[in-house]
Amino acid sequence: MYYVISCVDKAGHAHVRAENRPAHVDYLKANIDHIVMAGPTTSEDGEAMTGSVLIMEYDSLADAQAFADGDPYKAAELFESVTIRPWKKVLPA
């Protein structure tokens, strides 16, 4: 099953994102088999990262939650909020 993990950064925490980005990217690479797509949300001009959106494939919501809980960004307390929702792909087929 697919899950959308949507994360919003805390305001004024760009330095936390930058400092922890290498560990975050390593974590994503270690879980690459579960990633459908992933990337940051950005400011309107595309210059600043403001959060993350990941579409993951896991057997259960608990597995998706465990992945989100293991993210170095979470340990660094970067996120103001994290939501995880089941997702159904419709298009493209």
From TrEMBL:
InterPro entries cross-referenced by the UniProt entry: Dimeric_a/b-barrel, Sec-metab_biosynth-assoc, YCII
Residue ranges of every copy of the YCII-related domain listed in the record: 1-88
Gene3D superfamilies in the record: Dimeric alpha+beta barrel
Protein origin, superkingdom: Bacteria
Family listed: Belongs to the YciI family.
Protein's name according to its UniProt entry: YciI family protein
